[in-house]
Amino acid sequence: MRTLYLDCSSGVSGDMLLSAMAHALEETAGPGNGFARLGESLDRLGLAGFALHWSQKKVGGIATWHLDVEQTADQPLRTYSNLVKIVEDSALSPEEAKRAIQALTLLGRAEAKVHGVDLETVHFHEIGAVDTIVDVVGAMVLLEALEAVETVVSPVDLGSGFVTCAHGKMPVPAPACAELAKGLATFGSDCGMERATPTGLAILRTIARDCGPQPMGRVLAVGYGSGGRSCDEQPTYVRAFLLETVVGKKPVRHHHSAHHHA
Fold first, then answer.
1. Is residue 108 part of a domain?
2. What are the tens digits of pLDDT across the range 95-145?
3. Residue 47 within any structural domain of the chain
4. Which of 77, 199, 212, 217 is the most buried (most CB within 10 A)?
5. What is the distance between the alpha carbons of residues 237 and 141, in angstroms, rounded to a whole number?
6. What b-and-e string marks burial along 87-115, b requiring 16 or more CB atoms within 10 Å of the CB?
7. Contact in structure between 83 and 127 (CB atoms under 8 Å)
């Protein structure tokens, strides 16, 4: 069977996961089957006003892939309920839609909890833009395309220091990130910046069945995905390993599984 191993030891964000998974799909399915497939799948959302721009980005001398989601038209301020309706009304497969809604629910609940508001009415400040929907839905589409039966994630670097957001200056991890890190294996490096985003953590919480070291298996592909703030001074990227693992020898389940049902 196929296992996806996500190395998030230098951090995680939605765009880093998307880029790493799309790159791994290109490696295993051939050129044009990763990046183009993602674009075609996102068309099924019936959502206007955005464009995808792929580029190669060198980070610390390593060639990585990077995705920019450009907003090409004004977007309304959306609530959790609006985002879920977009997914429900789309032409995604039932499994893709189910996972996407699960990740959006985790995001919405975290925001609602830290701000003390109702889930149905929570407005997604930083996470309300189109790129949240693109990151969440794209990750679920790519997971199906990679045909991975299991996903295992490394311990995640949450970073350190302070982050400035719509609500002011907050210590890293910011409250929503701290909430979304529950169930995952995490650590804080002395980088002095935020290394994990709410969207990245929500995606991991949805798809990861286990946290820990890379399982034994034959490596089929390795994808590298960098984020907007990845640079030589801050060499951050997600690595997506697609592994052929022995059937019947699944990764050992840790007592605290990273997977939580929405």
1. yes
2. 999 999 999 999 999 989 988 989 887 776 544 568 889 999 999 999 999
3. yes
4. 199
5. 20
6. beebebeeebbebbbbbbbbbbbbbbebe
7. no
Structure tokens at 236: 């951050």
Q: Which residues contact 139 (CB under 8 A, 6 or more apart)?
A: 14, 17, 18, 21, 103, 203, 207
Gap between the Cα atoms of 173 and 159, Å rounded = 7
Which residues, at least 6 apart from 167, have a Cβ–Cβ distance to it below 8 Å? 125
Distance CA 103, CA 261 (A): 10
Retrieve residue 221's tokens.
């592909």
Beta strands in 168-236 (DSSP E): 168-171, 186-187, 210-211, 218-226
pLDDT tens column, 185-232: 999 999 999 999 999 999 999 999 999 999 999 999 999 999 988 988
Which band of pLDDT confidence, cut at 50, 70 and 90, is reported for residue 37? confident
Contacts of 116 (CB under 8 A, 6+ apart): none
| Residue range(s) defining the domain that contains residue 223 | 2-244
Rounded to an integer, what distance in angstroms lies between the CA atom of residue 13 and that of residue 197?
A: 5
Q: How many CA atoms lie within 13 A of 238 on its CB side?
A: 35
φ, ψ for residue 206 (rounded to 5)? -75, -40
Residue 260 lies in a domain: no
Number of domains in the chain: 1
User: Considering the domain boundaries, does residue 164 fall inside one?
Assistant: yes
